[in-house]
Amino acid sequence: MVVQHNLQAMNANRMLGITTGQQSKSTEKLSSGYKINRAADDAAGLTISEKMRKQIRGLDRASTNAEDGISCVQTAEGALTEVHSMLQRMNELAVQAANGTMSEDDRQAVQDEIDQLVTEIDRVSETTKFNEIYLLKGKEGTEKTETIVTYKFELTQAAKDAQKGTLGLTTAGQNALFGAGQTTAISGATAAAGASMALNATALGTNKLFVSPTGSGQTGTDHVEVTDANLATYFDVADDGTVTAKTGLTFVTAGNITLANAGGGTTSNGTDVVTGTPASAATTSDIEKYVEVAEDGSLKYKDGQMLYSVAADAAGEYGDQLENTKIAEADLSTYIESSANPLVDSTGAKIDDVSVYFENGVYKGGIFRNDTNGNSVEIGAEQIKDYIDVKENKVEIKTADALEFNLHVGSESDTSNKIKVEIKSMSAGNIGVAKLKGTGLMTEDDATNAIDTIADAISMVSKQRSALGAVQNRLEHTIANLDNVVENTTAAESRIRDVDMAEEMVEYSKNNILAQAGQSMLAQANQSTQGVLSLLG
Questions:
Q1: Which of 74, 391, 418, 497 would be a feasible disulfide site paired with 152, CB 3.0-4.6 Å?
Q2: pTM above the 0.85 mark?
Q3: Is residue 454 a contact partner of residue 437, using CB atoms and an 8 Å limit?
Q4: Rounded to 10 degrees, what is the CA torsion of 425, 430, 431, 437?
């Protein structure tokens, strides 16, 4: 028996301290409801839990952002619903005014109502806003002046007396070219008015030949196509010298070009042939339309097509080229014409680029040209651009960018978490009905034209409403997905961080019993040394 160290009491006291500590933690967990109250409780679990909390709170906010976006879109779409109603009424009035039974006073009454509706459309565009953001007037402060370049095609001095009419082109094909400097003459090739002549060419696949009638006021060039290696192309010669292509089934395969009549007989007492090497790299042309020659000598394209195409020579060298290039259509209800007085978009909307391109160089090949007045046929180096000039026409218009804003619908900074909303200006000018104000329906013709104008405006508003409706549907799906992710992530975070109350109550009860037992044992251990005093007595 020792007196200096009461080991029983020391052990009981140590165990009681451990039990008391565990009892304290259980009390903390039961009172807070959390399994993790400090990093020491579960360091790894705390890290995971905090990341999940960040995601959950971010997604909650993103869902609210999407709901705000729906409210904004609904505000804009609701305003456009009224614009649609006004346009439908304007269409009804335009149809009424287009009727020949309307008097001038009747049309004035219609015009007065149209004026009021146009003014109201502008007012709706100018005043509709959400959270102090104007929705239907475009991007505020971005109105600017843009220079639109169109092109005027003019015949040069050498061909200024070109006859007014239409230069007809056949469907797609390639240029028939010959070696640089190669020339020949075919004498006696005459053609009376109404006669037919045939041009037989060597087999180069699909080729396009250039036929140039001569005579008073006829210096333009007609294009004729040879579409098959075994197919010849015939020409009808009209009273005015116009050359029209027909097809037959005769063809020369000896590498020569001859001039024959439709019946197959030659029209001269001897024919020189071309011995030059054909071009090996002809350029395919997709020419299906026509080019008009106006009285002022300008050439205007139809439906985005240009007139000429020049290919490489036998050596594959590209020379002076006026490429057969399509002019892109503007994204508008009104197209820009390549003429002396180009049309610009009457709505004031932003115009897409319209361009024509040329490649210049030294032309190396030859082009077949047929003279129908009995003169010789010459094949040699020639520059197509000698016949036309291209001049720029510039006009300036005011444009306004569309209102654009992004809805952030994710918890991360990724750009994929942004949904772009674009709302174009829906002013009367931008949708094209501003010009109807004042006198836009005062004549039968004007009223008839107004029907198309209003139809285009209805289409523009419908397109914008459709886009807004699609965004709203997308946002609704986004919200549903975000709420689902929040729910599942919250459940996962709860399993890491929240305490199991039943399990913790069992632990607390155990520690409570152990604490009481420890206190009792500590008291007993302290009394065990009292026996030493009896030895002293």
A1: 391
A2: no
A3: no
A4: 130
> HEC profile for 199-214?
EECCCCCCEEEEECCC
- Residue 453: inside a domain: yes
Provide the H-helix boundaries in 99-224: 104-127
pLDDT in tens, the chain (537 residues): 677 778 888 899 999 999 999 998 999 999 999 999 989 989 999 999 999 999 999 999 999 999 999 999 999 999 999 999 999 999 999 999 999 999 999 999 999 999 999 999 999 999 999 999 999 988 765 555 555 444 444 434 443 332 222 232 222 232 333 333 333 333 333 444 444 443 433 333 333 333 333 333 333 333 333 333 333 344 444 554 444 444 443 333 223 333 333 333 333 333 333 333 333 333 323 222 333 434 333 334 444 333 333 233 333 333 332 333 333 332 222 222 333 223 233 333 333 332 333 222 333 333 333 334 433 333 333 333 333 444 555 545 555 678 899 999 998 888 889 999 999 999 998 999 999 998 889 999 999 999 999 999 999 999 999 999 999 999 999 999 999 999 999 999 999 999 999 999 999 999 999 999 999 988 888 877 777 777 776
- Structurally, the chain folds into a number of domains equal to 1
Among residues 135, 133, 134, 75, which one has the least CA distance to residue 472? 75
CB 298 within 8 A of CB 342: no
CATH number for the domain that contains residue 422: 1.20.1330.10
Evaluate whether residue 27 is within a structural domain.
Answer: no
The one-letter code for the residue type at 476 is E
Kindly tell me the number of DSSP H helices and DSSP E strands found in the chain.
Answer: 7, 20
Q: Is residue 358 part of a domain?
A: no
Cβ proximity of 94 and 88 under 8 Å: no
Cα–Cα distance for residue pair 57/433, rounded to 1 Å:
48
Per the structure, the complete domain to which residue 452 belongs is given by 52-141+408-489
Cα–Cα distance measured from residue 446 to residue 397, given in angstroms and rounded to the nearest whole number = 24
- Contact (CB, 8 A) for 286 and 236: no
CA distance 331 to 354: 10
* In a domain? residue 514: no
